[in-house]
Design goal:
The protein contains 15 helices and 16 strands. By secondary structure, the protein is of the alpha/beta class. The protein has a 9-stranded mixed sheet, with helices on both faces. Strands 4-6-7-8 form a 4-stranded antiparallel sheet, with helices on one face. The protein is globular, with a radius of gyration of 24 Å.
Length: 449
């Protein structure tokens, strides 16, 4: 994962928040407190990429030291063919440039997310963290004229011969800027710009409605109708995460193999939660069909239960999506009976352990309790026996290090305070959940006698 911490102030109802994502990040707390706003902001940062954070064009301020460092490392690579270097010495410079640019870019970012001029961000900063052991490999092949930057042996960026010429690099600022952007991409594990196929999938709270009406919406042309261009004044009904959700569903192909490593996960959802499979028809309009267990013929999604329509986009993306880095999932407990909420908690844990990050808003104490159970299970000495007793596997178990929980609590004057909750031996205690349950139980004891 990219290592960065986000700080935001005066953003919608949120007075201030400091967020560092984990493989599983949960936002809990009061209704109408700003959870979806935080979810959308984090999605926008990852989806729009480095270009949205530091801009498209070269900036003189703070870039000189960074480009000189890059040029020096490239020269070493040309001489030695390969040069491995720690990024520790440049983190302060990178943080400074990033935050100066964020001050300029913050409201453009908000406009891009919400398709509206009305959402503003008072202050937005990011810090690159936990990078003391991170490194970059500079490799220069003079014969082929190819320069490559590889981060931690994983993310690789390739450049032409021009990037190995100090004089040319010093003269052409845009070449410098491309190197700088690649440096941020590799360190933060982000795209350079918004991709045609999003790796960060936003599942909105109104997903049932969009799944049932997506064909009608597509007919009127979403891109021309619902995306706010920079020069336009009109405010439009859909925010960008919803448009990209519809794009993602529309781009799925039944011809694509998808990712086979999620087959077992999909099987759990379809057999334990939807009691049937969800698929596209072979017709040109790719109608979504539900095939109940024991039946050969599918029925239209509009004739299916709310459980099926709610889970259908999640299932289809796991089946047919080419690559998913992270789900941004609003209220995964929607329309689910308590027993299915428990199973949803199990699916969330298995999704994270399958390598897909999840950022979730939830009001479900049941989902949180399952996550707490899995955290407690991870440190129990009799873990194997407990797993056998309840049918768990290692794919279910979570550790404290994998999970972060943030509680949003509405305060006076309509502002929300965001607090990171500590993870203890038994997981997370959520006061907003516990206080509500205590009040209900006190009332029940008084009335029921």
């Amino acid at each position: 994962m990219g290592s960065w911490k986000l700080r935001v102030e005066d953003y919608g109802k949120i007075k201030s928040a400091e967020i560092e994502m984990a493989p599983l990040t949960l936002f809990v707390g009061d209704n109408n407190s700003g959870k979806s706003y935080l979810l959308a902001l984090l999605w926008g940062i990852e989806n729009f990429g480095i270009e949205a954070l530091i801009g498209k064009r070269y900036v003189e301020e703070e870039t000189g030291q960074l480009t000189e460092w890059l040029i020096t490392q490239i020269e070493c690579a040309v001489t030695q063919k390969q040069n491995r270097v720690s990024v520790k010495s440049i983190i302060e410079i990178m943080n400074c440039l990033l935050n100066k640019q964020l001050e300029k870019q913050k409201n453009l970012l908000a406009k891009g997310i919400f398709n509206s001029e009305n959402v503003k961000i008072g202050k937005l900063t990011m810090d690159l963290t936990g990078l003391s052991d991170r490194y970059v490999d500079f490799e220069a092949d003079v014969e082929t004229g190819q320069l490559s930057l590889q981060f931690d042996g994983r993310y690789r960026y390739v450049f032409s011969k021009s990037f190995m010429d100090r004089r040319k690099l010093q003269d052409e600022k845009q070449l410098q800027w491309l190197l700088v952007r690649a440096l941020y991409c590799g360190i933060m594990n982000m795209n350079d710009c918004e991709l045609a196929e999003s790796r960060e999938v936003y599942l909105p709270a109104a997903r049932t409605g969009f799944m049932l009406t997506k064909d009608i919406i597509n007919k009127v042309g979403r891109n021309s109708t619902f995306n706010l261009a920079e020069e336009k004044e009109t405010i439009t009904p859909f925010i960008r995460p919803i448009n990209r959700f519809l794009d993602t569903i529309e781009s799925l192909s039944i011809d694509a193999e998808g990712n086979r490593k999620y087959t077992k996960l999909v099987s759990v959802i379809e057999h334990e939660m939807t009691d049937g499979t969800v698929e596209f028809s072979t017709m040109p309009n790719k109608e979504v069909l539900y095939v109940p267990n024991g039946f050969k013929k599918g029925i239209s999604l509009r004739l299916s239960s709310a459980v099926v329509t709610e889970l259908s986009p999640f299932i289809l993306i796991l089946k047919h999506g080419k690559y998913v880095k992270r789900f941004y999932y609003e209220e995964p407990e929607m329309c689910l009976h308590p027993q299915l909420q428990y199973k949803m908690g199990k699916v969330i844990g298995q999704t994270v352990n399958a390598g897909i990050g999840m950022v979730i808003t939830t009001h479900s104490d049941i989902i949180l309790q399952h996550i707490n159970n899995m955290i407690r299970l991870s440190v129990r000495k009799d873990r194997r026996e407990i797993c056998r007793e309840f049918g768990y596997t290692e794919a279910d178990v979570l550790s404290c290090e994998q999970v972060k929980v943030y509680q949003l609590k509405a305060k006076t004057r309509g502002k929300t305070e965001v607090e990171e909750l500590p993870c203890g031996e038994n997981g997370f205690s959520v006061p907003t959940f516990n206080d509500a349950l205590d009040e209900i139980m006190d009332t029940a004891y008084r009335i029921q006698g």
